[in-house]
Amino acid sequence: MRIYIPIAALCMALFAGATHAEETPDEGFSASITRLGSVWSSSVQDLLLGALSLTGVKYTYGGNSPETGFDCSGFVRYVFQQAGNLTLPHGARAISQLGQVVALNQLQPGDLVFFNTLKATFSHVGIYVGEGRFIHAPASGGGVHIVDMNDSYWAKRFNGARRLPVSALPPAEFSPE
Q1: Is 124 an annotated catalytic residue?
Q2: 11 is catalytic
Q3: pTM, full prediction
């Protein structure tokens, strides 16, 4: 099944305004999403639309597809492969070695954010979506969703961020299969 940009945009509109555990809409975040066409490159748009279209896909340890579910790195790998034709290694730690280091105050949508969730640095990864939020496949919590990085759980576990060269890649049509 192919997800085209209008359907993915609808998913984005439905899920992008999430703040605390994706429950409360936030006008500031929604307003930033409306700038997709003018501020972010088409590759970053594809990346974010693709990631948001997977909201709700269940967590599965080692999972790497919408049909079987995702773990955190499987989710990130899938999104970058589909949206940017970029193949990433499996595992948050391996992914953390790629791209350029980004300071917390310099995060941009599409950047990768890393956390210490298993008493090991770089044990969890997600994709920054803007306004202090990221989308990820958590081991608990029901499935892929957006969370606030400023929530105390995430804030004290933040390990760093990386930027991959998605803006240099040609736009790709996102298609979960």
Answers
A1: yes
A2: no
A3: 0.76
